[in-house]
């Protein structure tokens, strides 16, 4: 299988990023769901929440790399035609935008906070003496935007598996699988 994308299929690197990140997003949404649904002292909540920041930063770095790889491959990627194709492209663009904005809001807030930010034990931003208010403001939407991302992912899976694979049987799913 080629490393790069071709007009008929996504290549190895796009697939590794797509499926690897799909698994990591599942773990990230599990952590967010536990944070939302379970009481504070719950052991499962603490375990799932313990990796939320490190995994969130990892996903942020991966989506930037994936975006660059997508742009490099833009001319040879599988095409989307017709009205449904345009809707699929708009859906993918929304997924990319939220995959950047959701972790981005919290990373921005941490950069302007009096607590700083560490990634896997390394200091990324040292704590500030005074918080910067405009850097905190967008993070109020972090959770809501995160849940909107989860809903669009569900719609994306329903379209890929339900519509394309089970109803239309048009081989679109195979562009990412075989
Ligand atoms: C793509 C990556 C991420 C996703 C999908 C995501 C998703 C979410 C969601 C859905 C919630 C709401 C949970 C609830 O309702 O209780 C949440 C909360 C939170 N997340 Fe993330 N997150 C990501 C990355 C990050 C990063 C990078 C940080 C820190 C730098 C972070 C810090 C927090 C904090 C502190 C909360 C609790 C306060 C709040 O709801 O804003 N997250 N996250
Ligand atoms: C069971 C889960 C999933 C299935 C079955 C699935 C299926 C697919 C398929 C078949 C394609 C190719 C579509 C085409 O060429 O029109 C695709 C592309 C895409 N998927 Fe998924 N997907 C899943 C999970 C996810 C998740 C969790 C995300 C992001 C959070 C995501 C984001 C994307 C994006 C942005 C594309 C556009 C191509 C790219 O830039 O990689 N997918 N998906």
UniProtKB/TrEMBL annotation:
Chief location of this protein within or outside the cell: membrane
- TM region(s), chain numbering: 48-72, 93-112, 145-166
Q: Which cofactor does it need?
A: heme b
Where does the protein end up? Cell membrane
Q: Name one Pfam family in it.
A: Ni_hydr_CYTB
Query: Where would I find the Cytochrome b561 bacterial/Ni-hydrogenase domain in this sequence?
Result: 9-177
Similarity remark: Belongs to the cytochrome b561 family.
Protein name, per record: Putative cytochrome b561 CybB
């Amino acid at each position: 299988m080629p490393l790069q994308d071709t007009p008929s299929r996504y290549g190895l690197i796009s697939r590794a990023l797509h499926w690897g990140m799909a698994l990591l997003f599942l773990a990230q949404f599990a952590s967010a769901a536990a944070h939302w649904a379970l009481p504070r002292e719950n052991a499962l909540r603490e375990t799932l929440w313990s990796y939320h920041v490190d995994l969130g930063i990892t996903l942020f770095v991966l989506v930037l790399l994936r975006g660059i790889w997508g742009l490099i491959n833009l001319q040879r990627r599988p095409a989307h035609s017709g009205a449904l194709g345009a809707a699929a492209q708009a859906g993918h663009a929304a997924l990319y935008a939220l995959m950047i904005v959701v972790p981005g809001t919290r990373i921005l807030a941490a950069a302007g906070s009096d607590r700083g930010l560490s990634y896997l034990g390394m200091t990324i931003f040292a704590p500030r003496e005074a918080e910067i208010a405009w850097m905190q403001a967008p993070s109020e939407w972090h959770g809501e935007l995160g849940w909107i991302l989860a809903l669009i992912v569900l719609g994306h899976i329903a379209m890929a598996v339900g519509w394309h694979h089970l109803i239309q049987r048009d081989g679109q799913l195979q562009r990412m699988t075989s």
